[in-house]
Amino acid sequence: MKKRYKILTLLPIFASVLSFGQPIPNGDFETWVSVDSQETLRDWDYFEGFLGLDASVAKSTDKVSGNFAAKVQNTFLDFGTFSDTIGGFLSTQFPATSKPKYFNGYYKANMVGNDVAQIGFGYKDSTTTYLLAYFYVYASTSEFVSFSEEIDYFNTNVPTDSFSVMVFSTSASLTASNKPNTQTWLIVDNFSLSDEPLSVENIDYSLVGNLGPNPSAGNVSLTLPQTSSEVQVDIRDLEGATVYSTTTYTANSGLQMDLKHLPKGIYQLLATSGGRSFRRKLILQ
Predict the structure, then answer these.
(1) Domains of the chain
(2) Cβ neighbours of residue 165 under 8 Å, at least 6 residues apart?
């Protein structure tokens, strides 16, 4: 999937660059209501906190435009004899009335330790959520970053009765040595759907590489430009689960990957090095 992003220095004029599609309910995060003396974000689901515990989402005045944005944050749970830190989440589901081509928005991140945030758009059937456009946030940002993810309707026969949007402040596995950090947060603002990318001037090809053959029967080669930094390569399925991960310094000569153990299907490959990334859809058949 192609990702387009830009560090914000000026407030963008959306109307001049976007052909807006179906609206995302409260996608500008402006509408908050007071419930039991607590500000609650309308039309979105998240851990709202109880017994003095912090909610996983808070109103933020650090925003792109308007008055507010949503801050998704990891939450420390303390029940006396049991305590733990959980990753923050924010999600919404709404009827699908069109087939938009791009999922757009803005984020600002404070990533601590091994935490990796995730933002995704998909559709949901009775049992499973399938991600059609998604990406991961590995590093902190000092400014808001815009994104415009191309929506991949990988199967034209799938039902699109309802869409869903998901934000996770961390998607790290909950293990004894890899707990979410309480200082990690992700602020999101101005989510939208459109038939055009956020701005044609925002295209950033980042690392230019080659992945092939694609489609593949399982033996895949990844070639990237020479880099002095290590290259982290992750492959994720359509539900966002990491199914293959490796670190290499041999990007210039090519990384050979044997993926024959993975089920046939569509995956996303992400290679990251020195703050830049290479992203491709990978089809195994």
Answers:
(1) 5-201 (2.60.120.890), 205-284 (2.60.40.3080)
(2) 24, 27, 91, 92, 103, 120, 121, 191
Positions of the chain with pLDDT under 70: 1-21, 49-53, 77-83, 125-129, 131, 154-160, 171-178, 198-208, 226-228, 238-240, 249-253, 274-275
Place of tokens 């991600």: 131
Please give the Cα distance from 92 to 66 (Å, whole number).
21
- Separation CA 270–CA 148 (nearest Å): 16
Please report how many Cα atoms fall inside a 13 Å half-sphere around the Cα of residue 176, on the Cβ side: 0
> Do residues 136 and 149 touch, judged by C-beta distance below 8 A?
no
Calpha distance 31→28 (Å, rounded): 8
225 contacts: CB under 8 Å, gap ≥ 6: 207, 208, 209, 251, 252
The counts of H helices and E strands in the chain are 0, 21
pLDDT of residue 18: 45
Residues 238-254: pLDDT tens digits?
666 789 998 886 545 57
Identity of the residue numbered 78? D
